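RECORD TYPE: protein structure
NAME: Oxidoreductase
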Amino acid sequence: MIGSPAMQDRFSPEFRENLWELMRWRRDVRRFRTDPVEAAVLDRCLRAFTLAPSVGLSEPWRLIRVESPDARAALMRNFEASNARALACYEGERAALYARLKLEGLREAPVQIAVFCDDTTAKGAGLGAGTMPEARAYSVVGAINLFWLALRAEGLGLGWVSILDPDQLTRDLAAPEGWRFIGHLCVGLPAAECDTPELERLGWEDRAATLIMESR
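PREDICTED:
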């Protein structure tokens, strides 16, 4: 039973502290070394997807490994166009700061994975998705976070690139019909280690001091 003494004893205080430390060091990495990632280590981390919870046990995550020069070039063009549009939304000092930010690791990261949600999957028989179909996408996001932590535990970093045109990316990667783009993941060894988000260090935004939670 969850919360029973037996479950509490399964993980030591040292393990729980290490888990918090792992979460503190789970940063969105944009600066990567170009060293290759060992295949066995990547495969081990990808197993995190198989352990992730999903609505109705639908397991709707679908992955495309982006490896070819043509696919990576298309991805880079997509980012550059999307980033230019995003920059145009800002003015003054905020625009100047945005222009200085490094918001992707597309040129350096040795491993790149586009993650999709299969909205047409029959697995799970629609349980839980009839009232909230977006729960499938939430399931994919949850799986990505487990993957993120697994990578961090292996000394690897992950950068989630969201400044992309999802429709264009879906076409460029010839994703099957019914697959909805969730995020592009850059994976590799971080060029530097820091437990503070880069956007916080560079003055873009601060972390909230408290959790927003209300009672009814």
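COMMENT: The chain has one domain: 27-193.
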